[in-house]
Design brief:
heterodimer, A: 331 residues, Alpha-Beta Plaits, 2 domains, six-stranded mixed β-sheet, B: mainly alpha, globular
């Protein structure tokens, strides 16, 4: 019997990156001294996405990250990175990931170049490759002018850039960043976010754990919210922030305070609820879309000749969603 | 001020009471005393009046623990606040430097004194066992109390002037070595001076001899040897007690005076590259150059052992030492009244050999204590363990880098050993004997212990390992006795005993390596 007779004709494989998640966490359970740090944690990260990982202090973020980056063995459950199991295929996983911990993990007595050269050599890059890669990562992180400086003499923001440059020397496909913006001043934080956007544009998958929700909301395609070791939400950022009520809600902003506008808005046909937004000349308006629509509402506002400066579908802020999904108090 | 001192002392005592390791330490101490009592009991069956031996063991155990305390416990009093960056906060809370010094160091000194006090009733058992008088017991404990005061304040001064606990521990160790050696070294010039008219009659000569006497009298070991002599009937308060307490006070006042200068302006994050050049654009011999194919070896060679600059310095230094030893040895002979002081050719190489062995032992011990400890301190261990390499590869690569830095010393050890041996046959005979490698493998076990302990303790892994080995050797004297007896019984018996010893040490080394591996994994995951 020939081989072709028993082997079924398979369709050509689809590009794996289009189908398979880059990080696949299934039923992760981890306990420390009888306390359950992770309780059946399951989530996935899509290729070439920027995935936020959010949770209060002690929620299990760092433990999850340490398992993904092979530093900690999971007690139960599986974690796969590009299909490689973090326990059984540790080296393959390590070649594909770059992990930046939440503290400065640098040799302060080395120069920036020595530090990057050391790690590039540790990943097995040749001398020529190292020179090219170091130039590239220093250029990307805008640290080219500091290559001869001692790391210990650099500012916090610059040390964070060096850490990021180190993570990039082996050209990893996935970046795991634990609180990368903590302790940075606003400028350094914005610049770091710009670098992350550039990396995403280069096709990297970025898994970022952070407390700075506003920046995550702006950057991330998807998000996982964890609280007390349990996953509260994992999915697209858009779905999380979209208003999930039965009726559409819009936010209307006015240039100046308009007296008596609230009762007039409430009396409009189809309007179900109008709430003023605290501290702003804005109203949050919910209406029955079977009775009215946005065009009719806008037409009415124009007729009233009130100075409308904004009319947008109401989306929750990430911090609102975070507060809704996580429990009060410290674990 | 008193409120601040009381708060700090209370905090220090509470922390101490809560820590498991403190109680474990005391338990170990009690167990050792219990073991000594058992040994004394056994000795009582064979020899009469074993009390003196029991008391002697107790006293030297105490000296060891006080010295260890000075190196680790006392020398971290202020540096731990510097490392936590809390000195400024304490000052802002209204506690002045004197309050901080008293609050931090006095509590520690009391704890040490407490440990001495609680064992006093057990020690009285030595009188029952026979061979020791109450007067000897009292004199010995007063001498130890004074030594504790001195050590705690030496540790405090080192803690004030050092940036890190490790440096403070190193400085205290150096002081302790100097303090132990000085009385013996000064005996020679004293004898020489007493033989001259200048030393006997001039004021300066008399002053110098008095100063030397003061240093000799301050030595606690010499004092304890005197106390342990049969028929001791000297006063309890002697020069040793006065100089040790007085010295302690001077060191405390110095700590206070230097507090603003060092403790407040200390840069804990300070960085040092030794003599390694910073440029990487030009290839100079003093620069670290590009990372090697095994970058871990490159890193340890350059940033742990000092790289090419230190390698060359050591080579030149050891060569110069041959030249320096010539006038030094002649000088010693001259002081000793030798009629032919310059006839020292045969003494130079053995002296050089001794020095390079001591340097090698110290060098490897210090490197071992820093091998992984620096990674923990700089929080870089997880980055290293994230490399696509095994923990074993990382550890052995680092070890190779460390050994590379110690090559010049090792080279001179081999050269000197060849020069010292009368002929090649004798050299091979000595080197080929299993007994020759016995101390080498024992030292290897010690280095493993240093590395292991450096993964657990924040500072003082080296002195701790030294004392653990010392206590282990004390508690297992049977094996040492067997080695000595078997060497007299014949080659075969001796080889069997050495074989057992070798096996034990190899097993110990293997167990330590497994423990180091497990601990590294645990630290990487933290």
């Amino acid at each position: 019997m020939s081989e072709s007779e028993v082997t079924p004709q398979m369709p050509p494989p689809a590009p794996s990156s289009a189908l398979k998640p880059v990080i696949d966490v299934q039923g992760l359970v981890q306990s420390f001294k009888g306390r359950r740090a992770l309780d059946r944690v399951t989530f996935q990260v899509a290729p070439q996405s920027l995935h936020g990982f959010v949770g209060p202090n002690g929620a299990g973020k760092t433990t999850t990250l340490r398992i993904i980056c092979t530093l900690l063995r999971p007690q139960f459950g599986t974690v796969r990175v590009f299909g490689h199991d973090v326990v059984f295929d540790t080296r393959q996983v390590r070649r594909k990931i770059g992990f930046m911990p939440d503290h400065f993990s640098t040799y302060r007595q080395m120069t920036v170049f020595e530090y990057l050269d050391f790690f590039a050599a540790a990943y097995g890059l040749s001398l020529t490759e190292r020179t090219r890669v170091i130039d590239d990562v220093l250029s990307l992180t805008d640290m080219g002018g500091r290559r001869e400086d001692l790391i210990g003499g650099l500012s916090r923001g610059m040390q964070q850039r060096v850490s990021l440059a180190r993570v990039l020397v082996n050209d990893p496909e996935v970046l795991l960043l634990d609180e990368p913006a903590s302790g940075l001043d606003p400028r350094a934080r914005i610049e770091l976010m710009e670098i992350l956007k550039a990396l995403k544009a280069m096709g990297k998958t970025i898994f970022i754990s952070s407390h700075i929700l506003s920046e995550l909301a702006e950057l991330c395609d998807s998000v996982t919210i964890i609280d007390r070791g349990k996953i509260k939400y994992s999915g697209s950022m858009h779905d999380l922030l979209a208003h999930t009520g039965e009726h559409p809600t819009y936010r209307i902003a006015f240039g100046t305070t308009t007296d008596g506008l609230l009762p007039r808005l409430e009396q409009l046909p189809g309007v179900l609820k109008v709430e003023p937004v605290e501290g702003r000349t804005e109203y949050r308006l919910t209406f029955d879309d079977a009775v009215t629509n946005t065009n009719a509402l806008l037409r009415q506002l124009v007729e009233w000749d009130v100075p409308v400066t904004g009319f947008t579908a109401d989306r929750r802020h990430l911090n609102e969603a975070f507060m809704d999904l996580t429990e009060r108090g410290v674990k | 001020m008193f409120h601040g001192i009381a708060t700090l002392m209370g905090r220090s005592l509470r922390l101490d009471a809560r820590q498991l390791q403190t109680h474990l330490f005391r338990l170990v101490f009690v167990l050792i005393i219990y073991l000594m009592m058992m040994i004394a009991q056994v000795q009582a069956m064979m020899i009469g009046a074993p009390g003196l031996q029991f008391f002697m063991n107790m006293i030297f155990l105490n000296v060891s623990f006080i010295a260890l305390g000075g190196i680790s416990f006392f020398s971290s009093a202020i540096t731990e606040e510097k490392e936590e960056d809390t000195i400024g906060l304490l000052m802002m809370a209204g506690i002045n430097p004197l309050g901080i010094l008293l609050g931090k160091s006095t509590a520690r000194m009391f704890q040490a004194l407490l440990l001495l006090t609680v064992q006093f009733p057990f020690t009285l058992l030595a009188i029952t066992l026979g061979g020791v008088t109450f007067h000897q017991v009292l004199a010995a404990y007063v001498a130890l109390l004074a030594f504790t005061v001195l050590m705690s304040n030496v540790g405090l001064l080192c803690s004030v002037i050092s940036r890190r606990s490790g440096t403070a521990a190193g400085l205290t160790t150096l002081w302790l070595i100097a303090h132990s050696i000085a009385p013996h070294l000064l005996q020679l010039p004293k004898t020489a001076m007493l033989g001259t008219a200048w030393g006997m009659s001039s004021t300066l000569g008399k002053w110098t001899i008095s100063a030397i006497d003061l240093v000799i009298d301050s030595d606690v070991l010499l004092r304890l040897y005197a106390i342990l002599q049969t028929g001791f009937d000297e006063a309890v308060i002697t020069k040793q007690v006065i100089t040790n307490i007085g010295g302690g006070l001077v060191f405390f006042l110095l700590s206070w005076a230097l507090f603003y200068r060092f403790a407040l302006t200390a840069d804990v994050q300070g960085i040092s590259r030794g003599l390694i050049s910073q440029t990487t654009r030009r290839a100079t011999w003093a620069a670290s150059g590009r990372a090697w194919a095994n970058p871990l070896v490159w890193k340890e060679y350059n940033f742990l052992t000092g790289g090419n600059p230190y390698l060359v310095t050591k080579l030149v230094g050891f060569l110069l030492l041959y030249l320096l030893l010539y006038p030094t040895m002649a000088g010693i002979r001259l002081l000793a009244g030798d009629p032919q002081p310059w006839d020292v050719d045969r003494e130079i190489v053995p002296a050089h050999f001794t020095i390079v062995i001591v340097v090698l032992v110290l060098e490897l011990s210090i490197y071992s204590s820093r091998l992984f400890h620096d990674e923990i301190r700089l929080q870089t261990l997880s980055s290293l363990l994230m490399l696509p390499r095994s923990i074993g590869y990382v550890a052995y690569s680092k070890l190779t880098g460390m050994l590379l830095g110690a090559l010049p010393t090792l080279l001179f050890v081999i050269v000197d050993s060849v020069l010292v041996a009368p002929n090649a046959e004798e050299w091979f005979k000595v080197v080929g004997h299993p007994g020759f490698w016995f101390p080498v493998i024992l030292y290897t076990v010690f280095l493993h212990l240093v590395v292991l302990l450096s993964l657990f303790v924040k500072w003082g892994a080296l002195p701790l390992a030294f004392f653990v080995m010392l206590i282990t050797m004390y508690c297992c004297p049977i094996f040492m006795v067997l080695v000595v007896i078997s060497s007299e019984a014949g080659d075969f018996a001796h080889l069997i005993v050495l074989g057992i010893g070798w096996t034990l040490f190899v097993v110990a080394t293997f167990v330590f390596q497994m423990m180091i591996h497990a601990r590294l994994y645990e630290l990487g995951a933290k």
